[in-house]
Amino acid sequence: MSDDLKDEIEALNSIYGDDTLRHAPPDNHVLTLPGGPGASSLTLRFADSYPDVPPEILGTHSAGENAPRGAGARDLLLFREAVAAVYQPGAVCLFDAVEEFSRRVEEVSEAEPSGPPTDPHSPPAASASTTRLDEEHGNQNRNQEADSLPSYMLEEPPWIVSDPFVELKSVFLARAAPVTSPEQAASYVQHLVATDKKVRSASHNMTAWRIRGPNGTSFQDCDDDGETAAGGRLLHLMQLMDLWDVMVVVTRWYGGQKLGPRRFALINSTARDAFVKAGWAEEAGQGKKKGHGK
Fold first, then answer.
1. How far is Cα 168 from Cα 288, in angstroms, rounded to an integer?
2. I want to staple 63 with a disulfide (CB 3.0 to 4.6 A). Which of 18, 69, 72, 266 is the partner?
3. pLDDT band at 139 (very low <50, low <70, confident <90, very high)
């Protein structure tokens, strides 16, 4: 097993739960997809040359407890599509593939009809006027529900996600996004914590942002979230990179072994990776791309 695959297994199991990706002797692995007790699991095989070649998705290992008919086949197809979409030769892909799979499952679920099949013995359909009233009432309820949501839930943050960084079983993951105001930056953090249980269960969610305001004003802020000086170091990194109208959240899941000062290098490296993926910076030593810099 390559070091890349070992690190990827540690990262997935730290973020999604123990045994998310586990060895199935002699040559296979079982990947349990996100989704709780009813989640499907798939059988994968990794060549010795992975990640220079993609993983083989051999089939469905289990459709999950109380899963609807066809769920296993659907998840197998969606995960194969996800791997095909994110895989790049030489780069590990499972974390990105799992995230892409989750996005595709959500799209499919939203497109599926929510009502039960039509019963031939059911009463006649309602009149057009009754149906129209029901639709208007439903729209009104949805509008009321939207009005009752916290303001930070009304806008989906456009996160750009780094690769996971693993060190002694601690996992670091960064999310970066363009922002135009401190209020928007704060709402993005609230949205992330409210909607992602993996983030809520993390040891630290360290944040920093730099925003240009009107008439030459500017806003800069950071939050350590219990990791002393980490937020300030993120902000200093953004200052050195001359990034504006950008925020970053670095999440750490503690692996049980102290990293000492090394953790700050990992925090900044993870943030930089998100900035590079967003196109706001280039790899170290290559200079900064145009866009959110000066």
1. 31
2. 72
3. low
